[in-house]
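2024-03-11 09:14:02 INFO worker-7 job=invfold-0412 stage=load source=structure_tokens
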């Protein structure tokens, strides 16, 4: 079984909070913040949610996948936190060098996401980008086994549910899923 768990969703879905709790309950573990890889971009960076950023995003996804795969192959239970739409999963999985990973997508309501994004400290996301990315997740073909719609309870409760399903293999995504 892969030791790479991707916790995805639109901005404001609660990924970072839940991912940190999940990672803290695994050992040895590593928490990979996907957004960090976008911060490596210096001159000429595009806002990732814009259609013209497609090539940039593909490069960043492959770079973050390579890092995540290296940690997983190195014996760590890797938790990847990011706005990782299922449209990027084939490229991300290939870049990891793994045969499979686990993919959980959090999808609260758009209003809940917007509220979280616009009120959090150090806000770098904007409302139009959040709404756009939420719509992309809603319209994506995500197998129901990977979706957590309107997550309920505390972040600790959600982390416990994700860990349980992860350990049972409920979020498994692998070469066979790529069409």
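2024-03-11 09:14:09 INFO worker-7 stage=emit residues=179
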């Amino acid at each position: 079984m892969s030791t790479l768990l991707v916790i995805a969703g639109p901005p404001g879905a609660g990924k970072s909070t839940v991912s940190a709790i999940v990672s803290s309950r695994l050992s040895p573990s590593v928490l990979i913040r996907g957004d960090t890889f976008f911060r490596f971009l210096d001159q000429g960076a595009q806002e990732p949610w814009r259609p013209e950023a497609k090539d940039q995003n593909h490069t960043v996804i492959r770079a973050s996948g390579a890092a995540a795969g290296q940690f997983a192959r190195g014996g760590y239970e890797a938790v990847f936190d990011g706005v990782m739409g299922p449209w990027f999963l084939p490229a991300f999985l290939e870049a990891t060098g793994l045969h499979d990973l686990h993919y959980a997508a959090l999808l609260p309501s758009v209003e809940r996401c917007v509220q979280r994004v616009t009120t959090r400290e150090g806000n770098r996301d904007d409302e139009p980008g959040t709404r756009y990315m939420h719509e992309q997740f809603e319209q994506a073909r995500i197998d129901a086994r990977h979706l957590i719609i309107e997550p309920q309870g505390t972040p600790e409760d959600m982390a416990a549910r994700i860990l349980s399903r992860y350990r049972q293999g409920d979020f498994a995504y692998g070469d066979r899923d790529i069409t």
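2024-03-11 09:14:09 INFO worker-7 stage=report msg="The longest strand covers residues 100-107."
2024-03-11 09:14:10 INFO worker-7 job finished
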